[in-house]
Write a structure and sequence with these properties.
The chain is mainly β. It is 11% helix and 57% strand. It has one helix and twelve strands, in the order H-E-E-E-E-E-E-E-E-E-E-E-E. The strands form three sheets. It has an eight-stranded antiparallel β-barrel with strand order 1-2-3-6-7-8-9-12. A hairpin with a 2-residue loop joins strand 1 and strand 2. It starts with a helix and ends with a strand.
Length: 216
C-alpha cells in the first residue's frame, strides 16, 4: 500500500507535465466571422419620447465598420412640465408650449469593435461616433397633431453623436443590438421655439437605441 501511494505521488509531476503539453497542443478557437454588411431599423427611446430610424453598415476590416443612419424623434425642452387635462383624463397638456419639435438627423460615422479576441462572439461590443446634417421640423402645438403638419416649418442644423453598444447572438443572418448614444445638435439660425419665447440654439440628449436588422 505504501508503495502504491509513493508511486502515485511520484507520478503527479509527470501527469501535470503531460496535461500542460496537451493543453498547449490544443489550438485556440478562431473568432467567428460575421457578414460585413448589415441594414435594418432603429427603435429609439429618450426623455423626449419615442423615435424610429434606419441604418446601413459596411465592414472595412475586422475592427472598423462604416455606417450611415437617419431617424425621426420628438424633442422636448427640459423646462417643459406636462399636466393631466382634467376634462380629458387620458390626455396631457404642457403649459406655455408653442411648438412640437421633431428631429431628423442624417449621420455618417465609424464603429470600432472592442475586445474581439477576449469576449465570446455572442457579445460583440463597440464604440461609435458620427456627424451629419439635421433637419428640425416644428408644428404648432395648439393644432391637432396631424393637422399641425400643414403649418410645419423646417430648421437646419449640424449634429452628431458618440456612443457605445454591442451586438448579440451567433446568428449570421439577423442582427440584434443595443446602442447608448448622446446627440449634440447646433442650429444655423436662431434655433427652435418649443416653449413660448424660449429659443434653443443647441439640442442634445441621451438615447437608448435598439438595433434590429439583417446581415449579408
Amino acid at each position: 500500500m505504501k508503495k502504491l501511494i509513493l508511486a502515485a505521488i511520484l507520478l503527479i509531476p509527470f501527469l501535470n507535465v503531460n496535461s500542460q503539453g496537451i493543453g498547449e497542443l490544443a489550438p485556440e478557437k478562431e473568432p467567428e466571422v460575421f457578414p460585413g454588411n448589415a441594414f435594418g431599423m432603429d427603435l429609439m427611446f429618450s426623455d423626449g419620447g419615442f423615435g424610429i430610424g434606419g441604418f446601413y453598415r459596411n465592414e472595412i476590416n475586422d475592427k472598423f465598420t462604416f455606417f450611415t443612419d437617419f431617424s425621426i424623434s420628438e424633442s422636448k425642452d427640459d423646462k417643459e412640465v406636462e399636466f393631466i387635462d382634467p376634462f380629458y383624463p387620458y390626455q396631457t397638456i404642457t403649459r406655455g408650449k408653442k411648438n412640437r419639435v421633431f428631429l431628423i438627423p442624417f449621420t455618417a460615422g465609424v464603429q470600432y469593435r472592442l475586445f474581439r479576441k477576449i469576449i465570446h462572439d455572442n457579445l460583440r461590443p463597440y464604440i461609435n461616433a458620427g456627424v451629419g446634417p439635421t433637419i428640425a421640423v416644428t408644428t404648432p402645438y395648439e393644432r391637432e397633431f396631424f393637422n399641425s403638419f400643414g403649418k410645419a416649418q423646417a430648421h437646419y442644423a449640424v449634429g452628431g453623436y458618440a456612443g457605445f453598444g454591442a451586438n448579440f447572438g451567433l446568428d449570421k443572418s439577423s442582427l440584434v443590438g443595443l446602442n447608448f448614444r448622446y446627440y449634440l445638435i447646433r442650429f444655423f439660425d436662431g434655433g427652435v421655439e418649443s416653449l413660448q419665447g424660449r429659443y434653443q440654439k443647441t439640442l442634445g440628449g441621451f438615447y437608448i437605441t435598439l438595433n434590429i436588422g439583417m446581415m449579408y
